[in-house]
Structure formats: structure tokens, C-alpha cells
Amino acid sequence: MSSTPAEQPKRPRVRPDLKAHRQRLQALDDEIQQVQQKYEEFSGRPAPSVRRSNPKPQELASQLESMKKQQATEKAALQASIRRRLARVKQLRDRCPCPTIVALEARIGELDQAIESGKMKLVEERQALNEIATLRKSRKNVEAYQEEQQELDREHQRFAELFSEGDTGRNSELNQQYKELQALLDEAQAEDQQQRQQRQKAVEERQAVKKTLDDLYQQRRTLNDEFYEAKRAYEAWLREDRKRREAEREQRRIQEAQERRQRQIEQEKELAEMPAFESEITACESLLKYLEQEFRQPTKSGNTNSSANSKPLNTVAVPESNGVAPRRVDTVPDGVRLASKSTRGEDYFFSPTAAKKSSKHKKKGKKGGRQSSTGASSGEHSAPSSTTAQPSSGGDQAVSFPLGVLESFWEIRVDPPTSVNEIKDVVQAIVEKKDWYLKNQIQVTADKKAKVEKKIQELAMQLETQAIVTNE
Q: What residue spans carry the region label Disordered (predicted)?
């Protein structure tokens, strides 16, 4: 697929008109029918025949032609046999060290005398013995070569005799008869010449009509060919135009896919640049600030509605975070109460995010009781676990929190306190959680960047592969 849009093919001027084409064909068919009737009239007339005064010359000529064909067939078969024997003789001659048995025996005797003379070296004597063994083994080939050569000579002689039989023997008698009959044929041809001329005139008239008829049929075929050629050209343009539109749609689809991947790469880069645990650290700071503000020691003027018999709340000390001394919480205003999990349902706070986190929070509460799973949700890095203090049954005053505060607790995976006595432990857990986030922020951010870089490389490879496929 080319990366550039396909060029729009040239559109034919008009679509072939089938109705007009049929009208032109009908006009030609009417003319063809008229000429066809005239041609049939010529074909129905009896043609003048050539009179054969004497059929015997034709019979003798036929016999002579048959003899010539038989002789030609015999010569052709003999030539084929000679070619085969020549190939066989050549093959045997290549295998034979000597052309005849006499030459073979002479060579063997010569080598035997040389060996018996004792004048040969050991190597030469061994070579001579090997040659003698080879010559004796090839004796059959030499004999076969001589036989094939003799048969070839006989076939050459037979072929020469066939060529010399043209003017002798039986062929000579047939040639004389053929000459006598040729004179009779010449007389018959003179008588038949006039009839042939009349017949030729009738044939020429019929051929003229036939030529006119053939021309009309050719016009009809040409008209059909031109119409269907124009139709095929128009259909080819439709196909090319459809392919072009499909190619443009495919190009747009590929371009949109590349743009989506490019946007995904940019988003991944932006996410990789963001420090890890940013939202968790913000949540920890917000919770610490909220607990510090809400549960510090109230003034006497702010506690006028409290019951005279109510016991004072325990003072909560918030640990220092980031070098800032936290305030001390002396008591909690009257009427602060956190509903128990058994009395509040999932729809107590109607929020999809809160409901989802509440469901996870309940499942973890079933497994670990009041103990919170404070580790990271996945991966190698997990925050240290935090455990909130169990509420005392000795009249501890319950506390409640807004939905946003509860979502912050769920985000850092710390159970919110249910009483004032648990606030100190929860604050300590939040501080530990925040310290862990700050301690592991750099490493987790680096790991996240490495994963994102790997993913970006994969996306870039996909873009490059897709670009190569697009340019093909």
C-alpha cells in the first residue's frame, strides 16, 4: 500500500448505451438476413460437374501413388533404423579401446611381450597388466561394435538400392503406363475445361455474395467488441475508483491509528514525569491538617452546649511532620459521633468512587478486623502496614468525618478512627505512611519511568512497522 493517496483514474466519457447498441445490431441483422437469402439461392443451384470420360487412368494413377507412398514409408523406416544404429555404433565406439578384435588381440600381444621381456619398470608393468585386463573386459563391446557396424553397412546398402529402383524393374513398367494414361487425361481435361469455366463463374458469384455476408458479420462482431470493450473500460474505472476510495479510507484509518498511538505516547510521557505518591502525600498532609484543626482543645466559650456530666476527651498529640510542630488536641466538641459500619449501608454516602472503596474497605476489614492493609496496591513497593487502636468500651466518645475525609483515609489505606482514643494512633500511622511515601517516591518514580519508556519504545516500534507496511 502506498503512503500517498491513489490517483483518481480517468473516467470514461459516457456509460455504454445498451438500448442504442441493440438497435444498431437489429439493423445489421436485417441486412444480414437479406444477403443470407441471396446466398442460399446460389447454394441451391446445381453446380456444373466435370465429366469423367475414362475412370481407368485415375485408378492406375491411384495405384502408382499408393506404390510411391509405400516406397516412401519403407525408406523413412529404413532411415530411422540407420539413425538408431549410428547412435548405437557411436556409443559402442566410445567404449571400445580398439575398433576391431584383431587390433585388440594385437595390442594384448604387444603388452604381453613387453612384460615378458623384463625391460619394463614395476610401475609400467603394473600399468600394462591393468591395460590388458581392461582390454579383455572390453572384448564384448568390440564384438558388439563390429556387429552393429556390419548391420549399419547392410542397411546403407539397402537404402541405396531403394533409391536406384526408380527407373528399373517394376517401377519402370508402371511409369510407362502412367505416361500413356496421361495423354488420355489431357484429352479429358480439354473437354472439361468449358464446364469448369461455367462452374468457376458460378463459384465467383457465390463467393462475392459470401464475402458481402462475411463483411456484415464482421461489422456485427466489431460492433459487439466495441460495445463490450467500452463496458469493460467503464467497469474497470468503477473498480479502480472503488479501490481508490478504499485506499483513501485505509490511509485515513492508519493515519488516525498512528495519531492515537502518538497521543498515547505523549500521555505516557506526561504520566512518567509526574512524581509517584503525589496524591497520597497530599492526602496525608490534608488528613494531618484536618485532625489537627478539628481535634485540638476547645475554649470554654466553644463548649457551652456540652453536658455537665460528660467526661473530658483525651488530649491527642500529633507527631511532627516535615519539621512542623503539630498542635495538640485536647478535646472534641460535643455531639461528634461516627456511625458504626453495621448501621450505615453502602448507600450512606452515594458516590461511585466511595462505594467502590467502601466495598474494598469492608472486605479488608473482614480479613484483618480493625487492622488496615496499608501497603501499596501492587508492585514491588508497598507502604508499611498501619494499625489503628481499638475503641475502648469505657464510654469513649465516637467521632464522625465528612465523605471527603473518609475518601482520603481510604486512598492511603488507613482506617479512620471511630473514637477520640484512636486519633493519636491514626495520626501516627498517617505520619509513617507519609514518611514511607517520601522515602520511596524517587525509586518508584524511576521504576515507573522505566516501564513507561519501555512501553513508549514498543509503541514507537509499532508506529515504525505500520509506516513500513503503509509505504509498501
A: 37-76, 185-207, 298-335, 349-398
pTM above 0.70, yes or no: no
Alpha carbons within 13 angstroms on the beta-carbon side of residue 440 total 19
Report residue 21 as a C-alpha cell.
447498441
Beta pairing class for 386-387 and 328-329: unpaired
pLDDT tens-place string over residues 56-88: 556 656 766 776 687 778 778 878 887 887 777
Task: Tell me the C-alpha distance between 134 and 128, whole Å.
Answer: 10
Q: Say if CB 202 and CB 42 are below 8 A apart.
A: yes
How many C-beta atoms lie closer than 10 Å to residue 158's C-beta?
A: 14
**Locus of grid cell 503503509:** 470
* Residue among 422, 428, 412 at smallest CA distance from 375: 412
Query: How many Å apart are CA 312 and CA 198, to the nearest integer?
Result: 150
CA-to-CA separations, 55 to 64, 88, 176, 181, 188, in angstroms, rounded: 15, 50, 18, 10, 10
Give the DSSP H/E element, type plus range, for residue 182: helix 170-273
Residue bearing cell 453536658: 307
Rounded to whole angstroms, how far apart are CA atoms 125 and 224?
90
What is d(CA 193, CA 51) in angstroms, rounded to the nearest whole number? 10
271: closest CA among 104, 450, 110, 143?
A: 450
User: What CA–CA distance (Å, rounded) separates 388 from 417?
Assistant: 7
Domain ranges of the chain: 278-303+310-465
Annotate 318-354 with three-state secondary structure.
Answer: CCCECCECCCEECCCCCCCCCCCCCCCCCCCCCCHHH
Q: Concatenated DSSP letters for 104-154?
A: HHHHHHHHHHHHHHT-S-HHHHHHHHHHHHHHHHTHHHHHHHHHHHHHHHH
Which residue in this structure is represented by grid cell 469505657? 394
Cβ(406)–Cβ(354) below 8 Å: yes
| CA dihedral of residues 289, 293, 295, 300 (deg, nearest 10) | 170
What are the distances in angstroms from CA 30 to CA 34, 40, 148, 226, 344? 7, 16, 74, 20, 100
Kindly report the length of the chain: 472
Whether the CB-CB separation of 272 and 455 falls below 8 Å is answered with: no
